[in-house]
Amino acid sequence: MRFVLMALGEEGEGGGAPATAPRAELERYDAELVRAGVLLAAEALRPAEEGACVRFEGEQRILSRPAVGALSRFWMLETAGEEEAVEWARRLPLTSGTVEVRRVTGDEGR
Length: 110
Description:
Distance between the termini: 6 Å
CATH superfamily: Dimeric alpha+beta barrel
Helix content: 10-25%
Strand content: 25-35%
Structural class: alpha+beta
CATH topology: Alpha-Beta Plaits
CATH class: Alpha Beta
Number of domains: 1
Largest sheet: 4 strands, antiparallel
Strand order of the largest sheet: 2-5-1-6
């Protein structure tokens, strides 16, 4: 089953503060995911201040800058189930923020 772990910072003006962790510890964590054979993808995202949002209101598409939200990094894992994905989330070396764990839709047959 595939799960996405999303590191969320604290929301606030301009998108809020990103989730934080020492770079070397994140690199070790990523290497551990690779060794375990569960990592499908992982990326850090630029700050929300550098992004944009497109809001949908019927036929209208409304662009706003900066982006809204505090998503700063994500990992896509393939695990035996939610319990394993949550365990990997607990092991993240974050010093602030929150990690949301969500299963990928349409993944029931995997």
